[in-house]
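Progress narrative, work stream C.
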Amino acid sequence: MSDTPDLGRIGVLRTLSPWQRVLRSAIVLGPAVVLGATAIDAGRLSPPVTIGLMLLAVVSALVPDGHLGVLVVLLLAWYWVVTVDQPTNVATLVAALGLLVFHASLAASTVAPPAAVWSRPMQRRWARRIGAAGAATAAAWGAARALASVTIAGKAEVLTAGLVGLAVAAVWIRHRSLARLPGGPR
């Protein structure tokens, strides 16, 4: 047994490092941004949905290593799909970036103990990853917006080719990242 008292999930908030406090705040901020973008785009806000999702986000911030984050992402996506009529407007990009903030903060908050201090290399590594994901999100949104009014014959073939290209790129990037690890494939 340990001599230290069990603080529980809420009590552990007092022991969080400054970086963990920022991450836990961002876990709550991400869904708020998505819900705000949804409300602005739709011109209305559903108080029960907003309260429910924000409560789930707060619990996710308290327990970032659980599976509740997946439920929050699924519910936010469902709410966006049933509420928003125009998927290529700026609110879509804002909502996508809000989801990125939620997901990345949730993932980052689980890589070290709550009281751990993040080193500069760790901060840079996560900033690069999140920046790359944000840039890719913005690029995909820009491409979708540019192509929204274009009529392409054989849309299914174009979509299939694009998805195959993305899958090949993902495998290539994954292989490159594993090759950098000691003992990884060369």
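Work stream C, second folded protein:
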Amino acid sequence: MTTLKVQLSIQVPSGPTVQSTRTVEVDKYETFDLSIPPNSAGTAAAGIDRMPKPEEGPIKLLLIQSNIYPKGEGTGEIKLTVEATPILDKPLHEPLFLLGPEVIASLRESNNDDNNGEISKISFVNTYQPTEPDNKKQAEDKVIEVNNTLVEAKNVKKQKEEAVQALKDSQDVGAKATAEEELKAANAEVTTAEEELKAANAEVTKAIAAVEKEIADHTAQLSIFIGRDAPAD
């Protein structure tokens, strides 16, 4: 047996404080850690499907907590399902703490008698849908567009260089002047395209950082603690 110390405290600003300290004996306990980064469809999921067997003893203590508790309206939600109970696809807006095997067993639905009130699986869905990957895609598309412009500008520059070279020994002063002006303009186009490509690449770098931050900010880090009572003789 393992003795757990459970402390609860409710503090009301300028009001009362309610505290409770309990010692809870469990035959065994397990902890699980899950990480759920969001995906574009808002369907990122993870769960515990290797729950202890009912014959190991009823669940006496259940704690589920997350690093984030989003409440919809653009922030998504963490949806919780505790199978064999009425807790199906419910938003996890606060930590969930249950203590007492009778209370936990009473969660079973009438059509789940075969489970003897046991929790068969705990699963989660992170419904947040990131927006920054779309911005990153737009920035990457811009790089491709500007790079194509640069390639075209360099091809024009090469043609103008060849034209100037072809008129090197020409006595046609006007044609030579025109060719040199066109080459000058082509060089300016290349310079402009290179600057735009540099700026576009910088935007991609910023977009990548924004994607990483958004994913990190909306990744649910979940901790589950399960304590079991001793099995019945």
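The mean pLDDT is 89. No further action is required on this item.
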